[in-house]
Design goal:
There is one protein chain. By secondary structure, the chain is an all-alpha fold. It has one domain: MFS general substrate transporter like domains (Growth Hormone, Chain: A). It has helices spanning 7-31, 38-45, 49-77, 79-89, 91-103, 106-116, 123-133, 139-147, 151-167, 169-189, 204-212, 215-246, 250-277, 280-299, 306-333, 339-364, 373-393. The longest helix has 32 residues, at 215-246. It is globular and about 55 Å long. The chain starts with 6 loop residues before the first helix and ends in a 13-residue tail after the last helix.
Length: 406
């Protein structure tokens, strides 16, 4: 695709990319409504470590699997329509989670948390939307900027516990629901799809089948499951980890989790921009090496607050660079008409990568010694395996694959 850039086009695509990033941030906040309050729920409902980890992981599961369908629907209907649909559909689950929390019902929190996962599908909308607005040489930058919408997890970690203290539990959820409604309205009146967007009207299942036949889909899914999965897992479980290991309050743990999430968010466009200038492979290799190193340091439980903060923020930077690098690689290698479908599968893999670690952390926690050594060692091992796979099996420069016939 060739794109003639005029001042008007540049301004319009900048506005649309900024608005898409905002939509992502609000939906990520909604998706992460349970994580920052998990320690509060655990105390009030006398939940075990496993129960709390299941509560945190449930929205992640739905938000991950739903991306597969949402990505294909974005190929067909465009980003503008799907941004509106996902934001609007997330309003009721946000309010329902607030009601369940007020009622102190663990079963209702699980049920409504399941539907809260809808908000997490927003990522599969934004990647093809950003790709359509930008020429191939700048898609790493574009997807990296859109990926900064992950800041919603930082906003949630920092503000959700504070809002609950200031306004109450249900009112906090009402505020987020109103923000979702206003965001959907902005998309309706302001957002536009790129003039280069061409709807793919093929049926969803054949499109997914075609995407599944491409090697790029599964290679990038594996890599993204680790870097984005690590980000999602820590963004949701870190409040529990910090409170358990270091004894901080829910508000203080949320503030430190926000720092982790913000560092990853700021690093993501850096990873995307670097991948525009050098081969994405080397950006991803750096990410995996740094992730393995910092997870190994975390096993030693560095003392608070300086050393523990430095450890997890540096870990976040390496994960953030990796997420930007992987999706720059996806944009570079994917056939134009299948970007949404491939994005849906890859981003679903990333979300699923974030689903299991909280469960593993909860199941392997040693209450006697008060450590998560097994879970962190598994992260080290996984990052090293991915490092070896990327170095030995994937090529730095590969031609864009052709469409697979359906």
């Amino acid at each position: 695709m060739t794109t003639a850039i005029t001042p008007d086009t540049g301004a319009r695509r900048g506005v649309n990319l900024a608005l898409a990033t905002w939509v992502s941030a609000i939906n990520f906040w909604a998706w992460n409504m349970i994580g920052p309050l998990s320690t509060t729920y655990a105390g009030e409902m006398s939940l075990s470590s496993t129960d709390a980890s299941i509560l945190v992981a449930t929205p992640i599961l739905v938000g991950s699997l739903g991306r597969i369908v949402v990505g294909s629907l974005t190929d067909r209907f465009g980003g503008r329509v799907m941004f509106i649909v996902v934001s609007t559909a997330s309003i009721v689950p946000v309010l329902a989670v607030g009601v369940a929390g007020e009622a102190g019902s663990y079963p209702l929190l699980l049920v409504f948390g399941f539907f809260l996962g809808v908000a997490g599908t927003i990522f599969a909308v934004g990647i093809p939307f950003a790709n359509n607005w930008y020429e191939p040489a700048r898609r790493g930058f574009a997807t990296g900027v859109f990926g900064m919408g992950m800041v919603g997890t930082a906003l949630s970690a920092f503000f959700t516990p504070r809002f609950v203290n200031w306004f109450g539990l249900f009112t906090t959820h009402l505020i987020v629901a109103i923000a979702l409604a206003l965001t959907a309205a902005m998309c309706w009146f302001v957002m536009r799809d790129s003039p280069h967007f061409t709807p793919n009207t093929d049926a969803v299942l054949p499109k997914l089948k075609a995407a599944a036949k491409l090697a790029v889909t599964w290679e990038m899914s594996f890599l993204y499951a680790i870097v984005f999965g690590g980000f999602v897992a820590f963004s949701n479980y870190l409040p529990t980890y910090i409170k358990t290991i270091y004894g901080f309050s829910a508000v203080d743990a949320g503030a430190r989790t926000a720092g982790f999430a913000l560092a990853a968010v700021l690093a993501r466009p850096v990873g995307g921009a670097l991948a525009d200038r050098i081969a994405p492979k080397y950006v991803v290799l750096t990410s995996f090496a740094g992730t393995a190193l910092m997870a190994a340091i975390a096993i030693l439980q560095p003392p608070p607050d300086l050393w523990s903060a430095a450890t997890f923020i540096t870990l976040a930077v390496f994960l953030g660079i990796g997420t930007g690098g992987v999706f720059a690689w996806v944009a570079r290698r994917s056939p134009a008409q299948s970007v949404g479908s491939i994005t849906g599968i890859v981003s679903a893999a990333g979300g699923l990568g974030g689903y299991f670690p909280p469960l593993v952390m909860g199941a392997t926690y040693d209450p006697v010694a008060n450590h998560y050594t097994v879970g962190l060692m598994l992260l080290v091992a996984t990052a090293l395996i991915a490092l070896a796979y990327t170095a030995l099996r994937l090529h730095a420069h590969e031609p864009q694959p052709k469409e697979t016939p359906t």
